[in-house]
Specification:
four-stranded antiparallel β-sheet; Rossmann fold; alpha/beta; binds iron/sulfur cluster; OB fold (Dihydrolipoamide Acetyltransferase, E2P); six-stranded mixed β-sheet
Length: 430
């Protein structure tokens, strides 16, 4: 359903959203890239048969120390592999055979009043806290926001796409700790106000609000992709957040990781992913060490045969994967496996000019016009339609009654503007 607040997608989060989160601790193997850096010189810091602990750096990168990846498990390096990751491209990886890791007792190592902004920065860097919203180290964001200043910090747990419920699972299990991690991040960057933004049904929202206080929970009134994690124009006890406010957002898993890093001295080594889709016998939220292969997680959820379609990320914005033998890395929060019968064949018709794609676009673009110009090879006119602003949210393709995959066309149109236009002249050599 399309409204001025966005597109209301069919709710597909059950049954994963209602099931407890599974903690996968007995993983046989993880595959971790030595680094995400593409240009810096990467020198592996471990070799074959070396023993590693959680937090052991796998490489040394002099020019870009933040690009170093640390081991997420205790184990022994058993090999090296180059993999083609659908989300991260070509990665040179260490293969680590895991040994059973006895979790350390959770003894707080710090008191809240002893934590300073400098300590938060130092800890986020040392213990590798990564924001699951985009896979970027949190330290980079905190440093930048410290410089620019921040009026409002939001922990983004909205998840309005149809399947994903990993943010909800983290909030359900750790709401108080997520809020404390958010408070620490806000303290670090000098943001006086902060809240957790969600898009949850009444009973789920109330259960979280009861635990953390309803002033810290904001229910968005928008749907995909227009949801705004900011309390624009709404009053709480402390006034109104204006549109001109400097508002930044981080993921709820990053908040939890920051809390655990500061209070428990724990390296950020795990993430929670939703595993769902009609090919999955037991859809569930699963907490795994980084580097666990998608295949191991699918098997845990009862999948015995390869699915017909595998998507890393959400239904609307995820990336199709050809193999499940790829690792789960920071920034992945959803894995979908479908059978062929779940995929509807789309019959495409000519645009009828209904304008629904324009209404759906949260970037204010004219998808039908970009499509028309592109199909008619009016490449020189594309630049003025700003296809480069498109973030590939797919809302226009989803809503188009004629089945036109506008998002795919716009992706191609982004580079078509650079096409060389040749002016044909009469051949004078003859
Ligand atoms: S895919 Fe691009 S053009 Fe289409 S609605 Fe999203 S941002 Fe707009
Ligand atoms: S939604 Fe589809 S049919 Fe309607 S104007 Fe856009 S491209 Fe044309």
């Amino acid at each position: 359903m399309l409204s001025r607040h966005g597109i209301r997608l069919l709710f597909q989060k059950e049954p994963a959203i209602s099931r407890p989160t599974a903690e996968l601790t007995q993983i046989s193997q993880v595959i971790l890239p030595f680094s995400f850096a593409t240009e810096a010189a990467v020198v592996p810091a471990v070799s074959l048969y070396d023993t590693v602990n959680r937090g052991t750096p796998l490489a040394v990168i002099e020019n870009d120390p933040l690009a170093t990846v640390c081991s997420s498990v205790m184990g022994a390096v058993s090999g090296e592999r180059i993999i083609q990751h659908p989300l991260y491209g070509t990665l040179n990886c260490a293969v680590i055979d895991c040994v059973p890791d006895v979790p350390a007792p959770e003894v707080p190592v710090l008191l809240p009043e002893t934590i300073t902004p400098e300590l938060i920065l130092e800890t986020a860097e040392r213990l590798d806290v990564i924001d699951e919203l985009d896979g970027v180290p949190l330290i980079l964001k905190l440093r930048e926001w410290q410089e620019t200043g921040c009026d409002f910090l939001v922990a983004d747990g909205i998840e309005i796409e149809p399947y994903s419920s990993s943010a909800w699972a983290v909030l359900r299990d750790h709401a108080e700790n997520v809020l404390e991690g958010l408070r620490l991040a806000a303290l670090c960057i000098g943001a006086e106000r902060y809240h957790i933004a969600v898009c949850l049904s009444g009973h789920r929202r109330r259960s979280i609000a009861l635990r953390i206080g309803k002033e810290y929970l904001y229910q968005t009134d928008s749907y995909y992709p227009k949801a705004d994690p900011v309390r624009y124009g709404k009053r709480d006890g402390r006034g109104t957040v204006k549109r001109s406010s400097r508002v930044y957002r981080i993921g709820v898993q990053a908040c939890l990781a920051l809390y655990r890093a500061l209070y428990l001295g724990e390296v950020h080594s795990r993430c929670t992913v939703t595993v769902a889709g009609d090919a999955v016998p037991h859809p569930q939220n699963v907490s795994v060490p980084f580097g666990t292969t998608v295949q191991q997680v699918l098997e845990h959820c009862g999948l015995t045969e390869p699915p017909d379609y595998l998507v890393l990320g959400e239904q609307m914005t995820g990336t199709a994967a050809l193999t499940s033998d790829v690792p789960i890395l920071p920034g992945m929060t959803c894995i979908l496996a479908f059978t062929a019968k779940a995929i509807r064949p789309v019959t495409t018709r000519t645009c009828i000019g209904c304008g629904r794609c324009v209404q759906a676009c949260h970037k204010g673009l004219l998808p039908f016009e970009i499509n028309r110009r592109y199909q008619n090879m009016h490449y020189e006119r594309l630049a003025s339609l700003s296809p480069h602003l498109c973030d590939g949210c797919n809302a226009c393709s989803y809503i188009c009654p004629c089945g036109i995959d506008l998002a795919a066309v716009i992706e191609e149109a982004k580079t078509a503007g650079n096409a060389i236009s040749v002016e044909w002249k009469e051949d004078t050599d003859a």
